[in-house]
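Deviation from plan, reported transparently: 0GY complex.
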Amino acid sequence: MSFDKTPGWLDWYSNPSKPTFKLPAGSVDAHCHVFGPGDTFPFAPQRKYTPCDASMDQLFALRDHLGFDRNVIVQATCHGADNSALADACRSAGDKARGVATVKADVSHDELKLLHDAGIRGVRFNFVKRLVDITPEDELLAICEKIAPFGWHVVIYFEAPDLPELWDFFSSIPTQLVVDHMGRPDVTKPIDSAEFELFLRFMHEHPNVWSKVSCPERLTTNGLPALNGEQAAYQDVVPFARKVVETFPDRVLWGTDWPHPNLKDHMPDDGLLVDFIPHIATTADLQKRLLVDNPMRLYWPEET
Ligand code: 0GY
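Because the crystal trials were delayed, the predicted structure below was used instead.
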């Protein structure tokens, strides 16, 4: 089946630079996606966007080019609850990939077992209204019960203004809970604004909550400033990500977010994104925890 991309769609960067920052051995890109290819793994009828293709082979080539050892591949909303492309990528990667799926409340134990055997270790609950029709909380809690026997965790994607109303529901989730992209802070607000303070309090009060300190290219309002010596790209995001890394060094993860769905003004060079890391994790110890120790503990516990 062939698909027409959403008008204005930006394709992933085909020739990323080699990062200057040398990733620690065993680093994990803990947030990335595969899209199709649409003729093999059709996009879901209920999707809110139609992307370009971004195959597992292209993802694995990027992994090797950037110097990562492993990937955590997150089901993208354009594939709905059909996890075929994700499971195929995880299986094909051998032990070098784990996955986070999207499932419905009526998913069976046998279906979950197949996903587990492919390498899936979590489910994603999405609260971003432009991406999904929101699933009722009772259905999400039913999913939590079904994944419990597998020891999976839950990944949540929401935007900062929605945290107050979601707080109680998130608090009721019994598993480890991983927040995508720091709960999407508004980086034009001060770092000590009530909104970001609430997010930090959420992490303080819930020892089961982790955060991906990913997506500066999505959170920035400056676009990509000219690189200037030691200056980081996406500088307006640096204080936020650095604060989370330094406050919760054992509960942070990092990922490229390749192939970067729904960016509107620019497509990042993934090599430059890797060069962002030492600006938010400023010591070798913090870098190793962010890129190796933490994702390994969550996704490959048998090897830690
Ligand atoms: C991300 C962010 C986005 C999209 C998705 O699954 C998705 O479609 O996650 C977004 O549009 O903000 O993490 O990839």
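The first helix runs from residue 56 to 66. We consider this an acceptable substitute for the interim report.
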